[in-house]
Design goal:
With 540 residues, this protein is of the alpha/beta class. Helix 3 crosses helix 6, helix 6 packs parallel to helix 8 and helix 11 crosses helix 16. The longest helix has 55 residues.
């Protein structure tokens, strides 16, 4: 049998070869951001209506005044209903841009494969052997492989195009008919299992879901098991409320003149949280990718936030990053940047795959050394982290994603204690700069064998820590976030604060290298640890 010298023709239906080659994912992402940018305009118009209505009420009384006030209130409500739709359009277009980018990366890889194997690809995407090569080098398998790779890229782009078109058409049709309708009575409680929440949400009509996002955003935004897109819409609606809460707290603290030590400490905390919230809002409005999804936000205490870069519900690889000591709302931009660096490295190593990274700061991280010396805050965080990971499993579209949970410093104890006490929906666990994870062996963490990873920099201060009691007795000032560097004598080399060192051979996990970047430098561009984290996320 003679080997084929040309691949089967590329289907003409859907996105074509030249179309995909010329497509600009960034332009679609910018278009989505423009729709989202209209949110501020709509809100300003709604505020103006409220101001005008108040002025009208002061100078106009009677039945006509009441009717006008009712109508103005209705218009304001209708304007408010537009906001989630604008966010959803942005989500759809950004998701389309992401998948289009993945398709283009696969197409580029197919062309590179063709060049390497002497295969020609014409302007229609058809692959054939190069007639200039000797017959013995015109390998049929290479031609078939290039043709299959081109078709796979075009199929991905076509599926993305059809999905985005259908979702936008559905939004347009809903706007012309039943946009919102109240759902049945009854809501899942805050501690409800994600599978139950997912089933409840799936049983609602699109109009009922839009009603809940608009009128009960505090319910939708905080429920694990509600899809990422809806949570993002709901939490963005609450941003202004969160800022008002902080400003109100600041006003209360500032009533005492002169303010005492407690009030001064509170004012500093609120100011830091306000700065962090404003920086987060700026990142949420950023037009460039990867798009940020706001999955949770709280302003109590030091503040909490759950933010995804990329859509976890659509990605093949999902990283959840748990930061450590002192993390609060003001640290969110920096911590989110760390998650983004791992995500960027994943994109560089696997350009044709979709990945997402989540910053999970939904626990009360220790602020002081005496708090970090205990495990209470880590164990308290367990139920919430367990539910969140279960929620990612419940809401994911298509085949299950590979889920990786990464803990840094005290955050590694949060991850370990959760896996030990509650179980984690994770395919791999990663610990960097760990003071111990609450177990003596990797097998106690409940993930597949060979999927517990750790790294500790040679100059990480955490290597010198042997026990909380000794740490409290021998603190020395340093520049790490732990606030101390400890040089102690004695004690087993592989025993840290909270059990065996996960980066030591006796723990039973696997390790990857880190350069000399101290306790906080695992995400530096020239640190091999960054590649190590990304490869675990990708399953490589």
């Amino acid at each position: 049998m003679t080997a084929p010298t040309a691949a089967p023709p590329v289907p003409t239906a859907g996105v074509g070869y030249r179309q995909l080659w010329a497509a600009d994912p960034g332009a679609w992402r910018t278009c989505g951001a423009a729709w989202r940018g209209a949110v501020d305009l709509v809100r300003r118009r709604a505020d103006e209506l409220a101001t005008d209505a108040a002025a009208l009420r002061r100078g106009w009384i009677g039945p006509a005044s009441g009717a006008a006030d009712t109508r103005l209130t209705g218009v304001r409500r209708e304007l408010a209903m537009v906001v989630p739709a604008l966010v959803e359009i942005d989500q759809v277009l950004d998701g389309f841009a992401t998948r289009l980018g993945a398709a283009k990366a696969r197409l580029a890889a197919a062309v590179t494969l063709a060049d390497r194997n002497g295969v020609l690809v014409d302007r229609h995407g058809r692959a054939s052997a190069d007639p200039a090569r000797p017959a013995t080098e015109r390998a049929g398998p290479a031609v078939a492989g290039v043709g299959a790779a081109v078709r796979a890229a075009l199929d991905l782009a076509t599926a993305a195009d059809r999905e985005a078109t259908g979702r936008l058409a559905g939004l347009a049709a809903a706007a012309r008919s039943t946009w919102v309708s109240p759902p049945p009575a009854g809501r899942p409680g805050p501690g409800a299992g994600p599978a139950l929440v997912r089933a409840w949400w799936a049983g609602l009509t699109p109009a009922q879901r839009r009603w809940l996002v608009a009128y009960e955003p505090e319910v939708v935004g905080g429920l694990d098991g509600v899809p990422v897109a809806a949570r993002d819409q709901a939490n963005r609606l609450l941003l202004a409320t969160h800022r008002e809460d902080l400003l109100g707290e600041r006003a209360r603290l500032g009533r005492r003149i002169p303010p005492g030590p407690v009030e001064l400490a509170g004012l500093r905390r609120v100011d830091r949280s306000l700065a962090g919230l404003d920086a987060l809002a700026e990142r949420l409005a950023m037009p460039g990718g990867p798009r940020a999804y706001l999955l949770g936000l709280g302003t109590g205490g030091e503040g909490r936030a759950v933010v995804a870069l990329g859509d976890p519900d659509r990605s093949d690889r999902v990283l959840t990053y748990v930061p450590g000591m002192t993390a609060g709302l003001d640290d969110v931009p920096g911590e989110l940047d760390r998650a983004g660096r791992v995500l960027a490295r994943c994109g560089a190593l696997a350009p044709g795959e979709e990945s997402a990274a989540v910053l999970w700061l939904d626990y009360d991280a220790p602020d002081f050394l005496h708090e970090a010396a205990g495990s209470r805050q880590a164990t308290d965080a367990g139920p919430a982290l367990h539910r969140f990971q279960e929620g990612l499993r419940a809401t994911h579209d298509g085949p299950p994603a590979r889920q990786t949970v990464l803990g840094h410093s005290y955050g590694s104890l949060v991850v370990g204690a959760t896996a030990r006490d509650h179980g984690l929906a994770a395919d791999a666990l990663v610990f960097v700069g760990s003071p111990g994870v609450g177990v003596g062996h990797a097998a106690e963490l409940g993930v597949p064998p060979g999927q517990v990873w750790a790294s500790t920099a040679p100059d990480d201060v955490i290597r010198l820590v042997r026990s909380p009691d000794d740490l409290l007795r021998h603190p020395l000032l340093a520049t790490s976030p732990l606030g101390v560097a400890v040089s102690l004598v004695g004690g087993a080399r592989d025993e840290l604060w909270f059990g065996r060192d996960p980066a030591e051979p006796g723990f039973g996990g696997r390790t990857f290298a880190s350069g000399r970047h101290g306790h906080t430098g695992y995400w530096e561009a020239d640190n091999p640890a960054l590649d190590g984290m990304a490869r675990v996320v990708l399953g490589r």
